[in-house]
Specification:
Rossmann fold; alpha/beta; 295 residues; 7-stranded mixed beta sheet; binds guanosine-5'-diphosphate; 3-stranded mixed beta sheet; 38% helix; binds magnesium ion
Length: 295
């Protein structure tokens, strides 16, 4: 049994969470084209006949503009330490930038094998790929350079095969039926947050938090109630939308994903509150893991 821990690191938006979902062939991490979508360390456990690979999806590393940014960077750095292998993801459609260089310099300090993953190759011409690989190979002595499309799933199998070559014979860390550290309610709340990010786009910053307030399995249907907490009144207006249309759409799309995840019919109720209306601000901060940041 080959096993080990592999961290997926890179700038925001390069496709880290998409890659994790693609490897596991199911959605455990939400994705969006807004940076800073992933706020938690999400583990996804890949199992096959002769291996177990624990993948760790990290928040994108970026120049922090606020406390949340600094906090997310710290979380990502932590996840570079106790792993066997680092996957450094870049977006070939964007090219290598300052942000990538900053991360690469950090990665080098770790003294671990680094794979360079050239993601989003679906958007570049095949004949240009060799030139791109050549250009990137000059940056560092990467153990492997693997072009793939996380979104389309192209070459993801090859990545797994190659990773296995670098893992040692080791124990199985998790039971076969454990696929993630993400809890059911957390993922449900995240799916609602994903729809908010995707439907309202840049208008809504990342101060939106979602929380499952009620989950009741009634046999043929599951009743779920999700609370959306925002920090300003005008955000509340944007999320609710004209005549409640936005919130309705958020609910429809989120329910679709939640039903797929639970494999059962769902009745989803959503409501929006500002932090001020929240019964207990302290509890809110703890609930969303923001307490440490606030100090
Ligand atoms: N064209 C293309 N888009 C991708 C690919 N992988 C991810 N994306 C898109 O890039 C955006 C950011 O993806 P996400 O996984 O949230 O990035 P993260 O911030 O690195 O976790 C989303 O809109 C994805 O759909 C890919 O292989 N090809
Ligand atoms: Mg992500």
């Amino acid at each position: 049994m080959k096993s080990g821990f592999v961290s997926i690191v890179g700038r925001p938006n390069v496709g880290k969470s998409t890659l994790l979902n693609s490897i596991l062939e199911r959605k455990i991490a939400i994705t969006s084209n807004v940076s800073g979508t992933t706020r938690n360390i999400i583990q996804g456990i890949y199992n096959d006949d002769d291996s177990q690979i624990v993948f760790i999806d990290t928040p994108g590393i970026h120049k922090p503009h606020n406390k949340l940014g600094t906090y997310l960077n710290e979380k990502a750095y932590m996840m570079m330490e106790d792993v066997d292998l680092l996957l450094f993801l870049v977006d070939v459609q964007k090219g290598f930038g300052k942000g990538d260089k900053f991360i690469l310099d950090k990665l080098k300090e770790e003294n671990k094998p680094i794979f360079l993953i050239l993601n989003k190759v679906d958007g570049i011409k095949r004949e240009n790929l060799l030139a791109v690989i050549k250009e990137y190979s000059q940056l560092y002595d990467f153990k492997e350079i693997i072009p793939l499309s996380a979104l389309k799933g192209d070459n993801v199998n090859d990545l797994i095969k190659t990773i296995k070559k670098y893992l040692k014979e080791d124990i199985k860390y998790y039971e076969d039926d454990v696929i993630t550290n993400v809890s059911r309610n957390f993922l449900i709340a995240e799916l609602v947050r994903e729809k908010i990010l995707n439907l309202t786009s840049k208008e809504v910053p990342h101060t939106v938090n979602c929380l499952v307030e009620n989950y009741e399995d009634k046999g043929n249907i599951i009743d779920i109630s999700v609370l959306i907490v925002v920090d300003r009144d005008n955000l509340k207006k944007i999320i609710i939308g004209k005549q409640g249309r936005m919130l309705k759409e958020i609910g429809i799309q989120a329910r679709r994903d939640i039903e797929e995840f639970l494999g059962k019919q769902v009745f989803l109720e959503t409501h929006v509150k500002t932090i001020e209306d929240w019964r207990d601000k302290e509890k809110y901060l703890i609930e969303f893991g923001l307490k440490e940041m606030d100090e």
